[in-house]
Amino acid sequence: FAALHAAVPGLPLASSTVLPGIVLNRDFAAYCPAEGELRALLVTEPLRPALTAPGIEFVVNSEGQYQASLRWIERRTEALVKHLQSNNVKLLLSSTKQDKVVIYYAKLYGVSVVECLLSEEIALISEITGVSPYAPFGDNMFREITETAVASFCQPLLLGSKRCVHIGFTSVCTFQPHCLILCGPVDGVNEQHAVALREAFTMLQQLFKTIDQ
């Protein structure tokens, strides 16, 4: 329930509504409008390669070597984002904050980015779509990307003064997610309504379990 409702203070209760899909309470780090169905990719690690791995010492003998290493990283980052584009990935959903060079190339190659997702949000999207997070630096970085989810739409959503991301995923199960938008004059009223609705849903769940038995 926590991931499937959003509270908007400062609006009348009558403005409350139910929206298909899910609403993420953050703005796009990069937004590239796309029409029709689009492919989304979940990631849980930075797409910009690191100069070294944990426990490994990286040694350079000159400023020139260091700058050359940075140029190599930038070229590799561009190649990876371009690889996403070539696999028709139009949306990147990341649990980590991505480097500014990733955002730059995402905008350049038409890939929208939403970052800093909570682990609960990643888990919910995985449950809805049936896909697992993509590991970009495996044995073959440029293999075909098959871990993509399908979204029917992905667009900005303004809730009061807060910019959010509204996504409609094609579900692989009977669960068709909808998001409850709760409006009220102040946060306290919205919290009371949210608690009451959650308790009502819990009661309905228990009732249906009893009937099934």
Automatic annotation (TrEMBL):
Top-level lineage group: Eukaryota
One biological process term in Gene Ontology: chaperone-mediated protein complex assembly
InterPro entries, per database record: BBS10, GroEL-like_apical_dom_sf, TCP-1-like_intermed_sf
Gene3D superfamilies: GroEL (3.50.7.10), TCP-1-like chaperonin intermediate domain (3.30.260.10)
PANTHER family: BARDET-BIEDL SYNDROME 10 PROTEIN
The protein's name: BBS10 protein
Gene: Bbs10
